[in-house]
Design goal:
Strand 1 and strand 2 form a beta hairpin. A two-stranded antiparallel sheet has the order 1-2. It is an all-alpha fold. It folds into 3 domains: 84 residues, Hypothetical protein, domain 2 (Endonuclease III, domain 1); 75 residues, Helix-hairpin-Helix base-excision DNA repair enzymes (C-terminal) (Endonuclease Iii, domain 2, Orthogonal Bundle), CATH 1.10.1670.10; 76 residues, no CATH class. The protein contains 14 helices and 2 strands. Helix 3 packs across helix 4 and helix 7 packs across helix 9. The longest helix has 17 residues. The structure holds a DNA duplex.
Length: 272
DNA sequence: AATACGTGGCC
DNA sequence: TGGCCAAGTAT
């Protein structure tokens, strides 16, 4: 849930999930669509799909217990290098080289003297992080948490609080006079994109309690906003995008091929 | 390596 | 207001 998503937005959803599905086996017993539905508006709903698939894999391959080592975690759907390391370190107390966006930024400023880390995670960054990691297991866990927290709270992407930074005396970027980034990150476009349409369609499917006819997406009924099953609002939002028919079609087929939606009785619904 | 993939808060 | 950015992963 935390992948690319701020903690404060994750917390309430995470709590509801753990109340509803206290163990991997509970989640694995559900249809994948229920995971997607209760993902709510966290974004990147394929993560919900993968989390559900991970629960299934944990039941099948690990007798329902989350594995504690990096290699086995990495085999789980939706678990990459960062998540495997973070779970092994923070949930199981292992000594792992955790490298997330916060740690990358701290290292970039302290050691490289640059405002931002490189655009992609490099082998050199991993090497540096591995070298910095304390040998003691307990210390290494605290180190990972501390560096990550420093990046999240003090050494932030925008307006870093250098005046209250505990390691400002050792910062290469500060010493260099806070040079601006050497590149401008290419922003993720949103307005008018397929992603925007996909998001709007998913908002409809999450609220629908029965398959939604394709015509509902392509031709809005005049009385939108008064739909009996409550999908009028997200449906109206979708139509407000005024996207081209082929773009809408591309979004729908994309969602189906991604496993986020399925055709049933001529309509579209979350996977049952 | 580059690209696709949601959402909402902040400045 | 529009772009930036957030505990990344898969292809």
């Amino acid at each position: 849930m935390l992948q690319q998503t701020p903690v404060v937005r994750v917390l309430p959803v995470w709590e509801e999930w753990l109340r509803r599905w206290p163990s991997p086996a509970h989640l694995a017993a559900e249809a994948s669509g229920e995971a997607v539905r209760h993902w709510g508006r966290l974004g990147y709903p394929r993560r919900a799909l993968r989390l559900h698939a991970a629960a299934v894999a944990i039941v099948e391959r690990h007798d329902g217990d989350v594995p504690g080592n990096h290699a086995e975690l990495l085999e789980l759907p939706g678990v990459g290098s960062y998540t495997a390391a973070a779970v092994a370190a923070f949930a199981f107390g292992r000594r792992e080289t955790v490298v997330d966006t916060n740690i990358r930024r701290v290292h970039a400023r302290l050691f490289s003297g640059t405002a931002l880390p490189s655009q992609s995670l490099t082998a050199a960054e991993m090497r540096l992080a591995a070298e910095l990691l304390p040998a003691d297991v307990g210390l290494s866990v605290r180190w990972n948490a501390a560096v990550m927290e420093l990046g999240a709270v003090v050494c932030t992407a925008r307006a870093p609080k250098c005046a209250e930074c505990p390691v400002r005396g050792a910062c290469a970027w500060l010493a260099a006079g806070e040079p601006p980034p050497s590149y401008t990150p290419k922003g993720q476009s949103w307005h008018g994109t397929d992603r925007q349409v996909r998001g709007a369609v998913m908002a409809v499917l999450r609220l629908a309690d029965s398959p939604v006819a394709p015509e509902m997406f392509h031709q809005p009924p005049a009385d939108l906003g008064f739909e009996a099953d409550g999908i009028g609002v997200p449906l109206a939002a979708l139509h407000r995008l005024n996207s081209a028919p082929e773009q809408l079609e591309r979004a729908l087929t994309g969602l189906v091929s991604d496993g986020l939606a399925e055709l049933h009785l001529g309509g579209l619904r979350l996977p049952a």
